[in-house]
Structures are given as structure tokens and as C-alpha cells.
Design brief:
This protein folds into two domains: 42 residues; 56 residues, no CATH class. Helix content is 37%, strand content 20%. It contains one helix and six strands; from the N terminus they run H-E-E-E-E-E-E. The mean pLDDT is 86. It binds zinc ion (ZN) (2 copies). One zinc ion binds next to loops.
Length: 108
């Protein structure tokens, strides 16, 4: 008969039990990180779905309209966050009223 018993020796089980809390902590850390990422994404999405975005001076700017792409310089019509010509994501837009840059939260 083979002596396979020492694969699960008490020492090894004790060692595994000792490591288990660390694995659990690591799992919790990964889970928390995933939740934070999902939360940030949801927050960005909320901004993306808003019909207007405000500049630092409080002027309302529509998120759908006529914009110039920073990457290919095409003037496109539609949602501000993505150029319909080259597909580049916009990192910011200039306020219609005062020209101050408005960072787009969903691209950060
Ligand atoms: Zn473009
Ligand atoms: Zn403004």
C-alpha cells in the first residue's frame, strides 16, 4: 500500500491554516478594489448621462452638441466624450461662455 498520508500531515494543515487569514485578507482587498473601481465607473457614467456639465464658473454646457476633436481636429456633432470621426476620447472641453477648460470626469 502506498504511503500517501504525509501530503496532508498535521504540520502542513497547520501551516495552511496559518496562511488562510492572509489569503482571506488578500481576497477582501481585491474585492474592495473591484468595488471602488465599479463605484468610480458608475460615478463617471452618471456624469456622462447628464445632459449638461458645468464649468468652474458655473456655466452650463451641453454634453451633446457640436465639438472639435482634440486628436484629429474634426468638428463632430454628438456626445462630447468621444469623437465620432476618429473615436478619440475627449479629456476636456472649453466652456461655451468663458472658454475655461472643463475636465471630463469620465475620462479620468
Ligand atoms: Zn477625432
Ligand atoms: Zn464658463
Amino acid at each position: 500500500m502506498s504511503k500517501d498520508g504525509h501530503r496532508f500531515s498535521p504540520e502542513r494543515l497547520f501551516f495552511l491554516a496559518l496562511l488562510l487569514p492572509f489569503y482571506a485578507l488578500y481576497g477582501l482587498f481585491l474585492l474592495a478594489r473591484a468595488i471602488v473601481r465599479a463605484w468610480r465607473k458608475a460615478k463617471g457614467l452618471r456624469f456622462a448621462l447628464a445632459s449638461e456639465i458645468r464649468c468652474p464658473n458655473g456655466h452650463a454646457n451641453p454634453t451633446v452638441g457640436r465639438f472639435e476633436c482634440g486628436a484629429c481636429r474634426a468638428v463632430y456633432h454628438g456626445w462630447v466624450g468621444r469623437c465620432s470621426v476618429c473615436g478619440a476620447g475627449a479629456a476636456w472641453i472649453a466652456c461655451d461662455v468663458c472658454g475655461v477648460a472643463i475636465p471630463l470626469p469620465w475620462e479620468r
